[in-house]
Amino acid sequence: MQFQKFAVGLLVFLAATLTFSQDVKTDYDHQADFTRYRTYHWERVQTSNPLWQQRVQDAVDKELASKGWQRTDSGGDVALVAVGATHNQNEYQTFYNGMPGWGWRGFGDTATTTVSTYLIGTLVVDIYDNNTRKLLWRGAASDTLSDKAEKNEGKLNKAVDKMFNHFPPSGKD
After folding, report:
1. Is 27 contained in some domain?
2. More confident: 81 or 109
3. Which residues pair with 78 in a beta bridge?
4. pTM of the shown model
5. Is residue 108 assigned to a domain?
């Protein structure tokens, strides 16, 4: 009985850990020659909270500068657009108690389901060729948000770091 409680607790913990891990994905035009691009400018940064617009810009600027790219006020080789959004996510957890094991009534005697709501933040960064207006690269990151701005800023920096970890893509495929 003690082992069953431990196993159920471990499964709940692992599920929660997997649910709340940061999700970062990137994609790019495999025909683009990224060695041609070295300067960029910001077209737009859109977030629901104006304080985060500068934070997003700063995080991306830092990563691109570390790759040798230079920011210009306008007319860069590429144009950047970043969009940040938030949404609520519900998680349902059902706990069974009573007689352990599967029976004709299911798993245990009674079930209790609770709903937890979490705020999820998503950031999408697009890089366009400034001459052709063709999308060259896209990075997207999602993570649960805290009620503390400092914690969320750390998550933002970590997400942008992961996003640009293998940037620029190495040559044409």
Report:
1. yes
2. 81
3. 40, 129
4. 0.74
5. no
Number of structural domains found in the chain: 1
Pairing between β-strand 110-129 and β-strand 78-97 as defined by DSSP bridges: antiparallel
- CATH code assigned at 53: 3.30.160.670
Which contiguous run of DSSP H or E holds residue 157? helix 149-163
98 found inside a domain: no
AA letter at 54: Q
CA 31, 36, 39 angle in degrees (round to 5)? 125
**123: closest CA among 58, 68, 66, 33?**
58
The rounded Cα 107 to chain-centroid distance in angstroms is: 36
- Residue 97 domain-assigned (yes or no): no
Rounded mean pLDDT, 105-134: 83
Q: Of 154, 14, 162, 26, which Cα lies nearest the Cα of 93?
A: 14
Residues sharing a CB contact under 8 Å with residue 112, sequence separation 6 or more, in sequence order: 94, 95, 97
**Structural domain that includes position 77:** 22-90+116-163
